[in-house]
Amino acid sequence: MINSGNRLLHELLNDYLPLLGVSAAQFIANHPVAQILVREDLGVPDISTIDCIDIQPLRCYFSILDVFRWPIEDLETYVARSTHVATHSPWNTFSAEVFDKFTHRIYIIRDPRDAALRTARIACTPAFRKHRPQPFDTVGEYIDYHLASLVRLWLRHVIDHVRNASASRIHFVFYEHMIDDERQFMEHLREYLGFTVDKAGIERRPAAADLGPAKGGATRNVFEGGWGEWREMLTNYQIKNVANIAGDVLGALGYPPTVEEALDWDSSSLNTEFLTGYLQPIA
Questions:
Q1: pTM
Q2: Are 257 and 243 in contact (CB under 8 A)?
Q3: What is the pLDDT averaged over residues 197-220?
């Protein structure tokens, strides 16, 4: 699992959907296990109230991190009781069938270097280590051991979803756009979701976190983090290794491969034009 902003998008949808005339709902919120776990420190705020599914080749499960996992017997009923559902699952033979149950499918792309650091930070929390033990005490130790595998996981995850994007009607967004300009991002999302209401409601709503501009890559004081932390946290060797593993896709997406190229970078450089030709769809 590599973290790319599902929780932040969940919070934005919870805030904005009522402005668009939609009551946000979560299947897990009324589950008795969630009622118990909401009082526990699971390492991620409010994670027990967020619908998250684990898509396996033969079955789909709803889960709360590694603490609770239960098979979904009737996927259509489950989907009908939730307005938005997250997943970190890699693409597999059951993914298309599951995606088809949802009216809209949003895939968040995030700089894999920052996403890896976010994953490491979660993995090193006492609460997370309680349920998924691992031998590393610090983010630096975790990254030193896992960075290459996390980037390869990110690369495989992105490529597989891009290759299935047309058939499964997957809509791609960037995490960095989400934190750069919340209102513009949500206006874009409103159009994608097909709401015809005037955007005045979005414009009147104060930004939830005052995330500020992404230019310069300053880390923001939000749980999910901002862009560019990798420039200070990763060594030169690690940065070069990431470029060796995923440099072609990073460049196609518009992410800077080096610290020097990141100095004047901002999220306006990101694009999804590569999706139409950079990766050929699966036949």
A1: 0.88
A2: yes
A3: 46
